[in-house]
Amino acid sequence: MEDKEKKSKTNKAWLGVFIVYCFVLLKVILFKYDWYYYWYSLKEWDFSVLQRGYSMANLMPFRSITMYIEYYYLDIGAFENIAGNFLAFLPMGILLPMIWENLRKFDWILVLGALISLFLEVVQLITGFGRFDIDDIILNCLGTVVGYAIYELGIRKALERRKKSSDL
């Protein structure tokens, strides 16, 4: 019983970390500007926002990534964009399987990372709070997968070793 209570407390702590991470992710991706910008944008929103967002969207895979690599010297935020999109979703791949045992499968982690990323991109498209970019989804998924690899190869193995040593 004691071991189950300890596991439950640990799980709740990681769930708390995940919730904070989700708020930070929303702040970084959707709410990076002053609140007045969002108030004004929503107040003045009409269908043209969606049309403008669609016309500016990147729907061709690797277009933005290639542009950032080709023109890295122009200081257009290439490193920040590529590394930021990758690193933003790295914790997703680590935290999801730590909290939910049924998500300890590669395909589930990849699908969830892709769906969450797609959701955030679609919100940007609809609201005009950012620009829809398929390359962001690709980089987010890559970050999620690498995070899951870190979980599988490092964290899960360490947790299993600790459990075995405490069972002795």
Tell me about this structure.
The longest helix has 34 residues, at 134-167. The radius of gyration is 19 Å and the shape is elongated. It has one domain (2-167). The chain has helices spanning 2-29, 35-43, 47-56, 63-70, 78-99, 106-127, 134-167. Helix 5 (78-99) packs parallel to helix 7 and helix 6 (106-127) runs antiparallel to helix 7 (134-167). The chain has seven helices and no strands. The mean pLDDT is 91. The protein is mainly α and 168 residues long. It starts with a helix and ends with a helix. Helices cover 79% and strands 0% of the residues.
Looking at this protein, list some descriptive labels.
168 residues; mainly alpha; elongated
Shape type: elongated
Could you give a short account of the major beta sheet?
none
Structure annotation, total helices: 7
**Total strands:** 0
Distance between the termini: 17 Å
Number of domains: 1
Overall mean pLDDT score? 91
Bin the helical content.
over 70%
H and E order: HHHHHHH
**What percent of residues are in strands?**
under 5%
Cα-atom radius of gyration? 19 Å
Low-confidence stretches: none
**Sheet/helix structural class:** mainly alpha
Short characterization:
The protein is mostly helical and 168 residues long. The chain is 79% helix and 0% strand.
How would you summarize the topology of this molecule?
Layout: H1 2-29, H2 35-43, H3 47-56, H4 63-70, H5 78-99, H6 106-127, H7 134-167
